[in-house]
Every structure is written in structure tokens, then in C-alpha cells.
């Protein structure tokens, strides 16, 4: 929106007031936050906006319900008192490279310190990153302590089994020319795809080439750091890292059809150990449910897999997803390395992942990977061997190469056996 | 979009071809699926569309990346072979009441059986609900078996500790006149709020009153059913139910600042017992991270709470959220009862929740609640007593009313103690 709407008049965002120019131009990849300029996705001062979309990802829709029902004053501005980061992250050289970070705002946690004057003057500038501290308690970590795979040290792991972490929430901020370059397409083609495939979300994607930054209404990223976070500043620090894509069915409910929670927990245990041994552990959690196809599609695929004539076979694992969804996987790891760049990391010593896509995306972005750590066999649920065999055959990392007959032999539970 | 776009020409969705009419009119709350009409959010046959938005919630954005990068053919149609529901749900009388279900498509899992002819002719009709089966394994349930709070019966709980469930993914489908009525506002006001507060998402919200159904790009709902699901058809079945709003920090990572995972797990244990005792257990999991304000806001609030002059006090718990976000809570339970109506339920015998908002929303929608079950005290993490005391003082259900001084006395860990 380019100007305040009168009650009887709604100006569409697709075509602004003729000749209008930006009050807050953005220069992506600039030397510092003030030269780059503030990301302004406000809906209460439309004349200040310099992006497409708004803050909070999908949760803008709930904000709309809050306003429509009278529970939220639409011109209400956040009071950011005491919300500043609970740990210092950066700045790192990568923040000044417009090609290294294209999908988040590297200065997004520091708006109050960089733009305090503007905020005090009433400009609605909001953080897109928040850094806090937490203690976490997981039954599997208690078991690791009981089995003496972990010991408590009073610093990372406490006597009651809880673990200290720094945790960071990051909302997506897409610099469209940079996102297009990552996908090997033109900015025009990307903008058109975003407009058409969403059923016409944000016409400015195609009518406003002057707005180059998009706040997409998708889930963001959470980062958990284990150990002394000041060691991010020392290039010698040994880094253990798992990049995990959300799987609600396993991560929360423990579904036995996949290895998601077991592998995540194994990654956390490895990260705790790294933090205790003078290194740093990093879990990156991306909201990309069901290979970024959503849970409805995921459950449809489960049914199609389980009802195949020859049973749920590893050999047809990816094929079934493609039949239902048109693609085998929509997670596209091309944007994933940004958070690693944001943390100033150039080398991952232990990468707790078998995904060739994640590995290749990181290496392609100049992040060295020293060692790849597969999920230990004893952590794979019985019914998840179908997934594991299919992934290894498709190029996922494994310590032992798979024999072809295993692919045909690995068959899961049919629907009537649940 | 109202017609196929030429390469050199993009027709904005806000203003269709003059005089165009719908090929597939919708009649919300009609007697059956064919009279109601199919929900068509296709992007490959724009002339068939009868809704605002598209399928897959937020994941439309990833579909756009798939198409932009050449990985997905934009006119690809899903092959729904073998994807039909793995258990029968409904139809129930509530499906025919346009005021009882306004935020999902009650026929959304049955598109292949109701519109098979149209799909075969090339109309791109997609399911918005998927019903499958699963086995879940949770360390806390193993502990419950070891402690003999649960026993295995070979049917609901298996000898290895895994639990059989029917699970259902539901994407939101909003009938805008009905949603407006739930929030006590006009449809025009709701449409305008949705348009303005999202920074101008979907101009058709304000230009196309003829399109009354919206597929919002927000996370959906997952339902887990424990026990014999055919008992949904018997009004005498004892129902145990927890309605849980997502909290990634606790549900997955076990953060000790809140009671989310402990209460969810307690709910699952109660649901398992209900299923074993001839009743039905139901977990409803809604994607509403951080009170539907998102995780960035949530972490900012944590910092503000922990840095208050008098410490993280129950007395200021809700105030801190309101300072940062403008509202204390944006979850708005008004639409939540729809899934209970969809399951044909008119009475919940054991409601595993202390939330007065959830209770009041259900009762207001005509669902009886017989007994409310608070979280057992021994499951509340030490640092989560702040949240619990604040919620009880604000009207959350509790077996013993709170004494005023407890509210002032309950103080959590400051940031330097993590």
C-alpha cells in the first residue's frame, strides 16, 4: 500500500501513486546496516514501505483476524524495550556480500541499535530475527546421560539433565535478484512464478520491479547453538551441525515411517558433545513440512505408497511422491546455506546429515564439509528402512554403498497392518 | 487468474474478464458434495477457479520455486491413485450446516469419489484433507508402559511400545461470510483486514466479492485418533480430547519455559487410555506458533520477560506479550471447533486443556464439555510456573483457585542464568 486508505477507498498495491519514490531505498549487501537501509514491511505507515509483503510470515493472516475482530489496534507499533539479542552474533564478512546472503536480513536482529532514531521518530521498523536463551529437556538426552554417552558439566549440561542453548528465530527476507540467481533463473521469471503459482498473491511481484525485497508468507528457520557462542568468531572452532527440515509427524509425534526425530535427536546429542568439548554445535530447523509440499500431500503419498501392488517398496519411494505432487522434493536447499553464512561459518567439521542436496548446496556456496555422519543403524525404526534404502540409492551419503537387490527387497508395512 | 497468461502478458487477478461467470459455483453447507460444488484453487486452469488463493497453504511459495527453477511442470496435475482415505470419516449432519463448519472443506478428503468424472475430464480438483494410518513411538509412552500406567493390548498399544493411530491433515478452506460471523464482524471488514494487514495479499479479497472462499497461506491442522474410529458414528462413545497449539520450542526441543510438550504428551497418554477402554482419543494439533504471532515475536517476548526489573513475573506475563505484539494472544479459538464438528462430535467427556478460550469456543459452538483435566503438577517444568500462574490468574481452568500473592511470588529464571 502506498498511502493510507480512506474508509471509502482502497488503493491496490499493484499500482502506486504515479512518480512516487522510496523514502527508504535499500542497497543489498552494503557495508553496514545504515548503508543497506532498514527493511520496512509496515502496514500502518504504507508510505514508508520498501518491500513486498509484511512481517511475520503466514502470521500476518492472524494479525488480520486480530484487527478485524477489534482485538488489535491496526496502527499499534511494537515496544522493543528489552527485546535485543541475548547473545552477540556477528557482524561477519559474509553479511556484506550480496551473493552470500539472499534469503534473510543479516542485520535483522539489530534494528533497534541501527535504526533507533528512526524508530523513535515513528518509523515502523521491526526485527526479522530474535536471539534468546533457553534450557531444553529431552527424554532421549536423559537416556544418553543414564547410558553415560553424555556427562553433565554444569555449563552445557546441567545436573538435572537440562541443556543450555542460545536459540534464534529467523523470518525469511528474500532479495529477489539474489534468489533468482541461486535458482539459475531470471528475476522476471521468478517473480512471475511466485505470482502465478500462488494463485496471484502479491501482484507487486509483477508490477513493481522497483521493490526488490519480498517477505514471503512461509515458515522461517530456528537455530539452536550449543556451547560458547563467542567461538563463532574463531575460525579454528570445531563445528558440528545438523540442518533439519521439519517433519511434524516424527519430530513431535514419533511416527515410525521415517527417521526424522531419531536423526534430529542424534544431531542434538552430537551438538551437545561438541559444545562440551570446546567446539560449537548447531541445529538449523527449517519449516518445510513434507518436503515443503505440506502435510496433506505427504499423507496422500503415504497412502499411495502403502497401497502399491508390490507393497511400500524402496524402489518406488520417490516415484510415488512425484505422481502425487509433480516433484520428488520441493525443499530446494539452494537458500539453506544463508544461515550458515550468517553465522560466519566457512567449515563444518561434522555434518550430521546424509542428504546429498544439503551437502552439495553448502559446498557449492563455499562451505567446506570435513566429515559426514550418517544416522546410526540402531536408530532407524523398522518401517523407516524403506525411506532409508530409497535415499541411499538416490545418492544420499552412506558409509557402505548399497547393493541393488536391497532396494527391491526393502518393503514396509501395508495400510491394513497399522 | 481468470485466463491463461500469454508469455508477454500478465492479467492481474484483481479484475477478471468483464462479465465472466463461474463455471463451478459453490453453495456452502449444501446437502452433499456435488450440490456444494468442488473447491478449485488450480493455477494451471485459471478459468475453472472459484476461490481466492491456492492449494497447499504457505507451500504454494515452494511450488513457485519448483516451477521457476524448471523442476516442476506448471500444468502438472496430481495422480490421486490409491490416495483415498485410509479410514472412513463421516458424512455427519454438521457437514450440511453452513454455520457449523466455516474454516475447512468437510468434503475435502472425498474429492476423488465425488468429482471423479470432472477430474477425469481434466478439471484440477485437489483434496484439502488427507486421512492415513501410522504407528507412533514416543519415549514418554515407553516410560508410561514401564511404570504400568499403560499396558500393551496388541491393538492400540503394541508389544514394542508403538501405538496405532489414524492421522488426518487438514488445509484451511475459509468461507468468508462464515468466518466474519464467527468474529462478529462484517464480511467487508474481514476482507479489508485480510488485505491490508498482510500488506496487500490477494487483492481479490477486496475486488471480488463473488469469490466467497479463501485458501489462506497459513499452516493447517493435524488430527490424531486413538482407538476404533468407527465409533465416531456412535454418540455414546466416550471422547477424550486435547486441542494443542503448536510450540516448536517445547514440542520438538523440550524448552523448559512452558508446559506445551508435557501437556501434549499427557494428552496423548490419556487418549491412548481412552482408545483402549472402548472410547476414542483425539489430539488436534494446530499450526499457530507463538500464540499465532510467530517465533520471532515469541523470542522477543522471552527477552523482554527475562529482563524486566523485577524478573520474569507471572503478574506481568501477558503484559509483555502485549507490549511487543499489540495483543496478548492471536490464536483466536473461534475457528477451532470446526474440526470437532467435522468429526461429528457433540460432547467431549474429558477435555485435556485448561484454556478458557478453547473451552468457551467449543461450548459456544454447542459442544458439551463434561470434565476438564488440568496438567498434573509434577509435569510442570520449574521455569514454566510463571506461565502457569499467569494463565490461572487470567481465567484458565484449575482445580484449586489461585491465591493472589502466588501471582506476585512466581518468578522465573533471568537471562544470565541460562
UniProtKB/TrEMBL annotation, chains A, B:
Keywords on record: GTP-binding, Hydrolase, Nucleotide-binding
Domain GTP cyclohydrolase N-terminal, first and last residues per copy: 9-197
InterPro entries on file: GTP_CH_N, GTP_cyclohydro_II, RibA, RibA-like_sf
GO biological process: riboflavin biosynthetic process
Extent of Basic and acidic residues compositional bias: 1-11
Keyword Transport: no
A GO molecular-function annotation: GTP binding
Region annotation Disordered: where it falls in the sequence: 1-24
Superkingdom assignment: Bacteria
Domain GTP cyclohydrolase II: 227-374
Pfam families per record: GTP_CH_N, GTP_cyclohydro2
Protein name stated in the entry: GTP cyclohydrolase II
Organism for this UniProt entry: Bradyrhizobium oligotrophicum S58
Lineage: Bacteria, Pseudomonadati, Pseudomonadota, Alphaproteobacteria, Hyphomicrobiales
Amino acid at each position: 500500500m502506498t498511502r493510507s486508505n480512506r474508509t471509502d477507498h482502497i488503493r491496490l498495491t499493484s499500482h502506486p501513486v504515479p512518480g512516487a519514490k522510496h523514502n527508504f531505498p535499500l542497497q543489498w549487501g552494503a557495508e553496514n546496516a545504515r548503508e543497506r537501509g532498514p527493511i520496512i514491511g509496515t502496514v500502518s505507515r504504507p508510505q514508508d514501505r520498501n518491500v513486498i509483503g509484511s512481517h511475520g510470515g503466514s502470521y500476518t493472516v492472524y494479525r488480520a483476524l486480530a484487527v478485524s475482530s477489534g482485538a488489535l489496534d491496526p496502527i499499534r507499533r511494537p515496544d522493543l524495550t528489552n527485546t535485543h539479542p541475548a547473545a552477540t552474533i556477528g557482524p561477519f564478512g559474509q553479511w556484506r556480500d550480496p551473493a552470500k546472503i539472499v534469503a534473510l536480513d543479516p542485520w535483522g536482529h539489530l534494528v533497534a541499535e541501527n535504526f533507533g532514531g528512526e524508530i523513535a521518530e515513528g518509523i515502523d521498523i521491526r526485527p526479522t530475527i530474535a536471539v534468546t536463551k533457553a534450557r531444553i529437556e529431552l527424554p532421549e538426552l536423559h537416556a544418553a546421560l543414564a547410558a553415560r554417552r553424555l556427562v553433565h558439566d554444569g555449563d552445557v549440561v546441567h545436573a538435572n539433565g537440562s541443556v543450555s542453548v542460545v536459540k534464534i528465530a529467523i523470518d525469511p527476507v528474500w532479495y529477489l535478484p539474489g534468489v533468482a540467481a541461486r535458482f539459475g533463473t531470471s528475476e522476471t521469471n521468478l517473480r512471475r512464478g511466485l505470482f502465478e503459482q500462488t494463485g496471484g498473491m502479491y501482484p507487486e511481484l509483477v508490477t513493481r520491479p522497483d521493490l526488490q525485497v519480498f517477505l514471503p508468507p512461509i515458515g522461517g528457520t530456528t537455530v539452536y547453538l550449543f556451547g560458547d557462542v563467542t567461538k563463532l568468531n574463531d575460525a579454528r572452532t570445531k563445528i558440528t551441525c545438523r540442518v533439519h527440515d521439519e517433519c511434524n509427524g516424527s519430530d513431535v509425534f514419533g511416527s515410525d515411517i521415517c527417521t526424522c526425530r531419531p536423526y534430529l535427536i542424534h544431531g542434538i546429542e552430537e551438538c551437545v558433545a561438541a559444545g562440551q568439548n570446546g567446539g560449537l554445535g548447531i541445529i538449523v530447523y527449517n519449516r518445510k513440512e513434507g518436503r515443503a509440499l505440506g502435510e496433506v500431500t505427504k499423507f496422500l503419498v503415504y497412502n499411495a505408497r502403502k497401497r502399491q501392488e508390490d507393497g511400500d517398496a524402496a524402489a518406488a519411494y520417490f516415484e510415488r511422491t512425484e505422481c502425487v505432487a509433480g516433484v520428488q522434493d520441493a525443499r530446494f536447499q539452494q537458500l539453506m546455506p544463508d544461515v550458515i553464512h550468517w553465522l560466519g561459518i566457512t567449515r563444518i567439521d561434522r555434518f550430521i546429515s546424509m542428504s546429498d542436496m544439503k551437502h552439495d548446496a553448502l559446498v557449492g556456496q563455499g562451505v567446506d564439509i570435513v566429515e559426514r555422519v550418517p544416522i546410526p543403524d540402531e536408530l532407524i525404526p523398522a518401517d523407516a528402512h524403506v525411506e532409508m534404502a530409497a535415499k541411499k540409492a538416490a545418492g544420499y551419503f552412506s558409509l557402505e554403498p548399497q547393493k541393488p537387490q536391497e532396494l527391491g527387497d526393502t518393503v514396509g508395512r501395508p495400510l491394513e497392518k497399522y
